[in-house]
Amino acid sequence: GGLLLSASGRAPLTVPVPTGGTVTVEIWRDKVEAVPAHAAAHAWFSDHLGVPVRLVHLDDPATRRPLDPEYARPGETVSFADGYPLLLTTLASLDALNALVARGDHPDEGPLPMSRFRPNVVVDGSDAWAEDDWRRVAIGEVTFRVAKMCGRCVVTTTDQDTGERGREPLRTLARHRRFGDQLVFGQNLVPESGGTVRIGDPVRVLE
Questions:
Q1: φ and ψ at 109, to 5 degrees?
Q2: Does residue 63 register a pLDDT over 90?
């Protein structure tokens, strides 16, 4: 039904679902067709952020952006997310990582908050790094395939509150969580069924 944009000190703006022709947008190396919102939405965000930007809508998420074929099954797609529909992390693994950061070259940069890794699903009650061995999980009424480990990039070194960039967690991940050419924290999930996931839902490891 559209969006209601609001921010402190700004007049709210209602943005209807965009219709019409598409433009090509780029997410990492993926080129995707998307429908631009009304010009008023572009102006609202550009003025608020202080840089020229556009708001676009993924009108056909079922076909527009297929997953990486190396890790996908036929018909699996992703929206404007980083690379996969959901990212799972665990509190135990964050605690273990922060313990390693505290013993490393830049202990003053820790402890790192979970928000630095931008997960959709955070699991409590597991052992540290247990998620490395998960292949299928059920969260509430939805089952998920664990597609691959999540390789982390330099974005994780940016403090979201201050905008300052440090060296962690990549320095510690490079020493303790390197798998091939990837520095890993978290697991990428692909839903196998529809349904709703709620805070507090039980998590079951199926495989």
A1: -85, -10
A2: no
